[in-house]
Amino acid sequence: MPDYREMYLHLMRETEKAINLLIEAQRECERQYVEPEDENSKEP
């Protein structure tokens, strides 16, 4: 008989990893948006 509790816990752990990956990607994009890459990229 399958261990439904372990299957559920595994799914929740992997779902949390995926959510955290998406959050980190969003934060990185936001950081790149608000911080200029270098001084040459600034407009006069």
Structure description:
- With 44 residues, the protein is mainly α.
- The protein has one helix at 4-34.
Concise account of the structure shown:
The protein is an all-alpha fold. 70% of the residues lie in helices and 0% in strands. The chain has one helix spanning 4-34.
Q: Alpha-carbon distance between the termini?
A: 69 Å
What is the N-to-C order of secondary-structure elements (H for helix, E for strand)? H
The percent range for helix content is: over 70%
Strand content: under 5%
Short descriptors:
single chain; 44 residues; mainly alpha; 1 helix; rod-shaped
How are the secondary structure elements laid out?
Blueprint: H1 4-34
